[in-house]
Amino acid sequence: MKLMTWNMDSLNATLTSDSARAIMSREVVKTIIEHDPDIFAIQETKLPRTGPSKKHAEILEEMFPDYDYVWRISEEPARKSYAGTMFLYKKQLDPIVTYPKIGAPDTMDVEGRMITLEFEDFYVTQVYTPNAGSELVRLKERQVWDEKYAAYLAELDKNKPVLATGDFNVAHKEIDLANPANNRFSAGFTDEEREGFTKLLDKGFTDTFRHVHGDVTGQYSWWNQRVKTSKVNNAGWRIDYWLVSDRIADKVLKSAIIDSGKRQDHTPLLLEIDLD
C-alpha cells in the first residue's frame, strides 16, 4: 500500500488561485498524482463552514477521478476557515470513516483536526496538531492535546495496527531541525512538546522515517515561508510524520520526504508498507 500526506495550507488557494504560490502548489499536487497513492491525507484545508464548493468538487474530480474523499472543517465556536483535514482514497477502498473528538481543551476538538479511516485489519488516521502559538500562548493546551491524542492512538492500537500521519507540529530531536540551539523556546521545539512526542512513541509507535533512515540529518518537511532564504539554505524542520504501530514497523518498505521544488512551507511525505 502506498500512502501520502501533505499540509497543503489552503485547499481553496491550491485549487483555484492564480498566485505564484498556488501554481507551485498545483505542481506539488501533480507530483502526488504521479506517485498514485492509495490514500492521500491533507492537513490545513482552511475550508469554509460549508465544506468544499461545487467548483472544488469539480476540480478534485478532474484531478483525482479514481478517488472518493471525506473532509472535516472547523466548526463553531472555532474560527472559520481554519485548520481542517481531508482524506482522498481509491474508490475500491471502503473504509469506515470517523471524526474523533478526544476531549481536548479550548476549541481544539472542533477545529477539524482529525479523521480516521478504519479498514478490516488496520486504521489510517491523520492529525493536524495544534501549534503552541506565538510566545507559546497555547502551550498548556497543546500539552493536554498531546496526552489525549496519545491515549486515542493507544486505544486504536488495542484493536488493530495503526498508521498515523500528519503535521504533528514538533521536531522531536535536535537532528530534526537545522538550528536547534536557536529554537529552544520556539513553538514546536519546546521540551514539553518534544516530551509529549516521546511519550506518544513510547505507547507503541514507530517514527517510520527514523526507522528507515536512522540518524540522517538535513532532511526536513517544513521551511518557514516568512523567511525567504529558509529553503535555499535548508534551514528546515521535520515536523510531519508517518507513524505506525511498533508491531508492523518491519512491514515498512519506504518512508520518504518528497521534493516540493521551490515551494516553501510543508512538503509531502510518502509511506509504502506491505500490509498483505
Question: What do these coordinates show?
Answer:
This protein has 276 residues and is α+β, with helices and mostly antiparallel strands. It has one domain: Endonuclease/exonuclease/phosphatase (Deoxyribonuclease I, Chain A). 26% of the residues lie in helices and 24% in strands. It is built from six helices and 14 strands. It has helices at residues 11-16, 20-35, 54-63, 139-159, 191-202, 208-213, and strands at 2-7, 39-43, 67-72, 85-90, 96-98, 114-118, 123-128, 162-167, 205-207, 222-223, 240-245, 252-257, 265-266, 269-273. It has a six-stranded mixed sheet with strand order 3-4-2-1-14-12. The protein has a six-stranded mixed sheet with strand order 5-6-7-8-11-9. Strand 6 (114-118) and strand 7 (123-128) form a beta hairpin. Helix 4 packs parallel to helix 5 (191-202). The longest helix has 21 residues, at 139-159. It is globular, with a radius of gyration of 17 Å. The mean pLDDT is 98.
Entry keywords:
276 residues; 6 helices; globular; Deoxyribonuclease I, Chain A; alpha+beta; 6-stranded mixed beta sheet
